[in-house]
Structures are given as C-alpha cells and as structure tokens.
Amino acid sequence: MKKSVDEVMVEFNTSACYIYESMFQHFLHAINNISRTKEENVFKMQAAKYSSELNDQLRDLLQHLMNYNSIPKNHLQMQLQLQNGIQYYLHGFTLRVNAS
Asked: Could you tell me the pTM of the whole model?
C-alpha cells in the first residue's frame, strides 16, 4: 500500500537525518588535520565534496521514496516536499560547515 505524503516525509526525515549526520562526521574526519587559516582552499574543497555527496544521497532517497509511494494524485506535492527537505538538510550542512 502506498504511503501518504506525511508518512513519506516522516520516513524521509528519519533517513535524511542519519545521512546528514554521517556526512558531517565524515567531513569532520576529513578536515581533522587541516588548518583552516592556512589551507582555506582545501577546507572549501572538502566542504564542497561532502555537500555534493550529501545532495546525491538525499536525491537517491527522494527517488526511492517517490518510486515506491507516489501516485498521480499526490506526485507533485510529494516531490515538492521532498525537494524542500533536501534543501533544508543542505542548508543546515552548509551552516554547520561554516561554523566549523
């Protein structure tokens, strides 16, 4: 049985939260030995790399959820809400990276 948009959003946020935290921990590990003041370009490259990886994984999650739960009646609403969720997590990642 297909899930409602709200149920899919709960599933998305649960999975996205784990993906987000995992990516951020990998990022922190990658920059552990980088002096941000001396190697700002390396820091920015690592930030871009992990931000892109987070985006890719969240888009894969979106596609998976859409494939298994979307019906014509709610397709657009579900897609828009999931895309907004991706933007939310990417924005949070960027803010956290800049605070590092």
From this structure: 0.88
Render pLDDT for 16-52 as a digit per residue (tens, 0 to 9). Answer: 999 999 999 999 999 988 888 888 889 999 999 999 9
Q: Name the residue range of residue 80's domain.
A: 5-99
Number of domains the chain contains? 1
Q: Are 79 and 67 contacting, i.e. CB atoms less than 8 angstroms apart?
A: no
The residue type at 94: T
Question: Residue 69 maps to which CATH number?
Answer: 1.10.132
Task: For the chain, give percent helix, strand, coil, nearest 5.
Answer: 80, 0, 20
Please give the backbone phi and psi of residue 93, each rounded to the nearest 5 degrees, phi first: -65, -45
